[in-house]
Amino acid sequence: MGLDRRSFISLVAGGVVGSLATPVVWKTLDDVSIWSQNWPWIPRLKYGEETLLPSLCKLGTDAYGVQVKLVAGHPVAAYGNPEHPLSRGGICPLGAASVQLLYSPSRVRSPKKRVGNSFEDISWEEAEALLAEQLKSAGKDVALVSGDDTGTAAEVLAGLVAALGSQQAYFMPSEGAAAAAALKLLGGDGLVGYDLEGADYVLLLGADALGAWGTTLRNAKAFADGRERAVRVVYVGPAMTATAAVADAWIPCTPGTEGVVAMGLANMILERRSPSKVAGLAEFRKQAAGFTPDAVATRSGVAAETLLGLAKELLAAGKPLVVPGTTAAQGLAVSDAAAALAVNVLLDRINMPGGVMVLPWGPKVVAAAPDKKAMMGRDVVGYLAAVAAGNAPAPKVLLVHAANPAYALPDLKTAQTALDKAGFVVSFSSFMDETAAQADLILPDSLTYERYDDAYTPYGSGQANYTMAAPILKQPLFATKAAADVALGVASKLGADLGFASFEDVLKAKAEALGLDFEAAATGSVWLGTEFAVQQLDLAKVQAPASAATAADLTLVPVANLKIGSPKVATPPFGTNAISPRELQGKDMVVAMNAATASKLGVRAGDAVTLSGAGGECRARVRIFEGVVDGAVMAPLGLGHTAWDAFSRGKGANVFQILGTQADVAGFTRFATAPVGVRKA
Amino acid sequence: MANSKSSVVLPFLVGVVASLVLGWWAFPKVLYSQKTQPIRFDHVVHVEGQAMTCDQCHTYRENGSYAGLPTTAACADCHSDVQGEDPEEQRFVTEYVQQGKEVEWLVYQYQPDNVYFSHIAHKDIECTKCHLDVANMKNPPVYYENRISGYSKNTMKMWECERCHAQNGASNACFVCHK
User: Fold this and answer.
1) Closest partner residue to A4 among B7, B65, B148, by Cβ?
2) N or C: which terminal CB in chain A sees fewer CB atoms within 10 Å?
3) Of A316, A297, A311, A320, whose CA–CA distance to A269 is shortest?
4) Chain B interface includes A530 (CB < 8 A)
5) A21: closest chain B residue by CA
6) Is A34 close to B20, i.e. CB distance below 8 A?
7) Which residues of chain A neighbour B20 with C-beta distances below 8 Å?
8) pLDDT tens digits, residue range A6-27?
9) Is B146 in Cβ contact with A14 (below 8 Å)?
10) Which residue from B minimizes the CA distance to A34?
11) CA-based nearest distance B26→chain A, Å
């Protein structure tokens, strides 16, 4: 029997029909679909031993201990560290995203040299040789801007700059610097801290303690504990911030008048109690006398009886504490800080349990470096303004470390002009931030989890503290290098030996200077200082604060928010999910004002508006919120990046573009609020 | 006419039978490659000989997550030196313990990354409900690896999870297993 065409077709048809009753088709389809889930470019989970290692988060404006979970040696998550005094198990939005940021698409993965309008990847040997060559030819015309005011890395870099003969080493603006300057103004010496855990009444004059001010996580824990002890927390400020929303009372005031309120309180306290042993009291009394309840009410909008109530509460409390600050967590006026300090002095709250604690400056181990006290006493905003205006020589080489001055400085246009004038800008940024994007050379720093790092007494701490972090990754993920190690190497090449072969050696010396065992410190042991320098404060030196932008009809109130970012880092991918339509709508930043202000300006909820300020204009949409005082416009800081990555670039506007500055006492600049104009776009 | 009919029906039936045979018998043999464990681990000698319980080697971590298979270091608690006469034990000690290497055990039921499975949430269910009864095996079973998907033949499919959840009143919402 031959197989004719008809039989063959029947055979095939039978085969097809039969195969439908077998797993061949169905199983193959299923397996192919599973195979398509496992293409090699799809990330795979790591399996293996799980470990928790202590480290530090310095991505915000403070620094605190975290624990990083590793699986088979790969970091996968960061948690709060219950053992660390500044976090007590808490973690901020940037800390929560810190492991994610290791793999951020905006990370600079190797040294880069500017060639025309773009960058060229170069080797570390070439990069360090180029840096050495530029520094050599610059001579003394070198400057440093660092955003790491707690770490020893900045000490090493400042040591390099000083060894080259320059005194131009600056920190980015911080409230810690303003508070220390206020203390110095009154004749004190040290870092300013607040024993929030010990106080039984806390008056926050603008300090958004549960937002982004000071030791944010510790503040939250202290206030949570305080609830059980019936500690009363009162917030004075122009907007219902995160802190105002949960405080026992929110007392609205005109933006930038918290110092005026402090002076009014001082006046009322002096009328009721005359403290003994306070130097300069007679002169201060004369100053404070001008701040009558009515005068304060006129300037600040805080009614006389409200102010009297506050003064009475302060006098009645056993351990009251007055804390100055801002919603921007920077730009605090030294005069405002001094006024708040004066109230604490009148209440005998200096170096007392639950009071203002004067903490010692940390030990310096790089001999060539300037004292941190001297560095914190310099105003980077003023320096860059002078460079921009031609009143100070532009540095031939500008080193930028742990900072993004091309994005995060007030009067931004001026700061950018100064950066443009600098001969050769070197950015040590780990990320392609705005400063790196316009730098001539990028020497990418490793992130904290990839190198040694440390933090000495972040601003606000109630007692001196020191935390060290050893690298938790054996090798950096990319071709990055610790900035301090680069500085030590280059110094050695230039014949300016800083005395150490590696940053690890510097930290060994620092641990020794603090009497701390290096191995213990590197594995998470935190040093706590228990000495508080005796202070002889003289109130005669308090300079009465002026209200910020008193002549303005409309005032900008920038609010820092860690989920959006910090002066150091832009919004991490995790943060994008947490930004609400109250902060960003589409690509427009949302600013809040109350109905009366909106009516006066002729705008409605949802309207697109143009904000104009000192340095330029930006676009926003209006939100009506009665948690903002009359004449104030509340705007979120941290949006409007032009570099970085898709998670933060091109979203909203950068408020620093329109944030003007105002000269303050002690050579500082205040910019926590500024005049603003609003018109329909 | 009869001839014509048989030249259609018979080949059709032959085709059906042939594809059924190929589909049910030959296809699985082609689809799966056979692999053996790097070390012939004898569960019986541990469970019966040493009276060890499953959770002495297959442990939970402090946070409740499941550590899975023991590390070489954990095995070396007993096997830092050769204990018996089994040549496989000797090979394990010389090739893995002494060289500090982890054994690349073939896991019969690894789930894809997109499946979240908590062992501790299922700890009251018999292990053998889902796993092969290796505790009673002197020789580890052959590992069948799917040549297309790369997974073990014994990897549990979603419908099996869903059926058990449904039978036990546990939620079958997507997010229960897909986080």
Assistant:
1) B7
2) N
3) A311
4) no
5) B20
6) no
7) 18, 21-22
8) 999 999 999 999 999 999 999 9
9) no
10) B149
11) 10
Nearest to A566 by CA among A412, A436, A331, A407: A407
Residues pairing with A494 in the sheet: none
A343: nearest Cα among A232, A444, A265, A399: A265
Which pLDDT tens digit goes with each residue over A222-256?
Answer: 999 999 999 999 999 999 999 999 999 999 999 99
Q: Say whether A20 sits in a helix, a strand or coil.
A: helix
Query: Hey, of B148, B155, B159, B179, which one would you mutate to test binding to chain A, going by the most A CBs within 10 A of its CB?
Result: B148
Identity of the residue in B8, B61, B146 whose CB atom sits nearest the CB atom of A10: B8
Alpha-helix residue ranges (DSSP H) falling in A540-635: 573-578, 595-601
Number of alpha helices (DSSP H) and beta strands (DSSP E) in chain A: 23, 29
pLDDT band at B4 (very low <50, low <70, confident <90, very high): low
- Of A339, A391, A331, A388, nearest to A669 by C-alpha is A331
- Of the two residues A666 and B169, the one the predictor is more confident about is B169
Per-residue model confidence (pLDDT) at position A101: 96
Amino acid at B70: P
Residues in chain B: 179
Interaxial angle between packed helices A503-513 and A483-493, expressed in degrees from 0 to 180 and rounded to the nearest 10: 110
Amino acid at B117: F
B114 contacts on A by Cβ (under 8 Å): 37
How many interchain CB pairs under 8 A, A with B?
Answer: 97
Residue A69 CA to residue A51 CA, distance in Å, equals: 6
d(CA B36, CA B103): 13
Nearest to A434 by CA among A656, A210, A643: A643
User: What tokens appear for A53 in the block?
Assistant: 């290692």
CA distance A256 to A546: 9
Query: Is the predicted pLDDT of residue A142 greater than 60, yes or no?
Result: yes
Residue of B3, B6, B12, B158 to mutate for A, most A C-beta atoms under 10 A:
B12
pLDDT digits (tens, 9 = 90+) for A124-140: 999 999 999 999 999 99
Query: Which residues have CB under 8 Å from A30's CB, separation 6+?
Result: none
CB A653 within 8 A of CB A617: no
The tokens for A473 are 């990754």
Closest listed residue to residue A320, CA positions, set A350, A283, A359, A290: A350
When CB atoms are compared, the residue of A11, A35, A49 closest to B14 is: A11
Lowest mean pLDDT among A315-319, B123-127, B165-169: B123-127
Rounded to the nearest angstrom, the gap between the alpha carbon of residue A364 and the centroid of all alpha carbons in its chain is 23
> Which helix (H) or strand (E) segment is A526 a member of?
none
Give the mean model confidence (pLDDT) for residues B80-86. Answer: 91
Rounded Cα gap, residues A558 and A461, in angstroms? 24
Alpha-carbon Rg of chain B, whole angstroms?
A: 23
- Show which of residues 43-102 on chain A sit within 8 Å of chain B, judged by CB atoms: 44-45, 47, 49-50
Cβ separation of B22 and A31 shorter than 8 Å?
no
Give the Cα separation of A221 and A243 in Å (integer). Answer: 13
Residue with tokens 């914190």: A376
Backbone angles phi, psi at A186, to 5 degrees: -90, 10
Provide the 3-class DSSP secondary structure of residue A232.
strand
Contact with chain A for residue B116, Cβ under 8 A: no
The partner residues of A557 in beta bridges, in order of sequence, read A634
What mean pLDDT value characterizes chain A? 95
Smallest Cβ–Cβ distance between A21 and the set B20, B113, B146 belongs to B20
Give yes or no for A11 touching B (CB within 8 A).
yes
What interface predicted TM-score (ipTM) does this complex get?
A: 0.87
Contact A548, A255 (CB under 8 A): yes
**Chain B residue nearest residue A17, CA to CA:** B16
User: Which amino acid is it at A176?
Assistant: G
